Amino acid sequence: MQAYKIWNKLFSEKHIKEHYYEKVHSKTSVGLDKITTKNFELEIDENIQVILRKTGNQSYKFTRYKQLLFLKGPNKYPRCVSVPTVRDKLTLSVLNEVIVKVFGEGCNARLPQLIVQEISDEIGNYDSFIKLDIASFYSNINQENLMSILRSRIRKAEILSLIKSAIETESLPYPTKEKVKRGKKTKGIPEGLPISNALANIYLSKFDLKFNSMGNIKYWRYVDDILILVNKKDLEKTERIANEEIVKLGLEFNSKKDSGSVVQGFEYLGYKIDRLSISVRNSSILKFEQAIEDLVRTINKENDKFIEWKLNNKITGFVWNDNKYGWVFFYSQIQDMKLLFHMDNLLLKILRRYNLDGRIKPKRFIRTYFEITKALHTTNYIPNFDKYTIEDKKNVLHSIYGDKALKWNDEEIESKFRYIMSKEIKDIEKDIEHFS
Which of 133, 272, 327, 384 has the most crowded Cβ, counting Cβ within 10 A? Predict the structure, then answer.
């Protein structure tokens, strides 16, 4: 379908409103205007009319994004994430639908688990590997080159204007201490927007195509992290071609690259991979173990039932808004059962250390793994919060807020539960972030 037809279909009052309640309503992040989803919904029809009018006449201007910085470890620049306002988030989310429908699902990132499964299937056919990562990927994308690529498929001025406005909008630190004159971002694209990943993948689409079409290697890319399986005789030539092609895009690889024998193994996407097994890299294990102990240590600040609920969420993960969250979900491709037994034993030791054995009844990592890999669609062991009734949600909130939760009406329960789940998701995602 042509871009203008997709635009006309998706940028309609009916679709935008449906999209809001399906994709944006449950997200709790707030932009610089401090307007929450609850306040946005009080005037949702008026807000949608503003979106339609201003995108239609190409006058839509994004509020400057709220800048959040996340540490990535010693000797690394922090990750800069841009948070839009609720209205801008809705506009960008629908725009992302347009972009994906025009360019195809290939502009969406693939699941790391599927990539690792493919690596496992192919590793026996090669003797060497190359690992590369693109330096400051998002911030070094050439905007003019990106817009040129987009124009190859998109002619409609309203779409191009909206994308250009989105990527040129600045991000400001929060809280802002003084009034800052509005400027324009001329290089790179903001990270964290609904359109960011699709645009980044489109920018590298020709690079991906070239390496995927080379018959003597196997190539994978997840955002800015690249892995190539290759035979030793082709290793230097492949590295040289990769460097030449990335320079053509105005990008460069970090100087710290990794290559060697697949017999020795390598780390990729948080996994530790060799020809014999797939496990979790040591730093990711240690980080998760510390997160568990940090949670258990808070037992004196929170009630037992709430800590038990949070702890079991860490162990089993959960389903929410049709998405799967959790450490074992992420590392579901491992073949190292000893690690899962180790995690179960470690948890019991931690509970005994804090005199909580008997008070807290934890679930098990090893069972979680088999439920995920063998019986995910029928299991009751892993909570699916999409199936929770109002009464189920009230029971969870009662364990957190006490008897006052019993007095809340259905709307209050839904709102409070969404808030709690947003915090759970952030907590769970910390366990696996910066895995590359």
Answer: 327
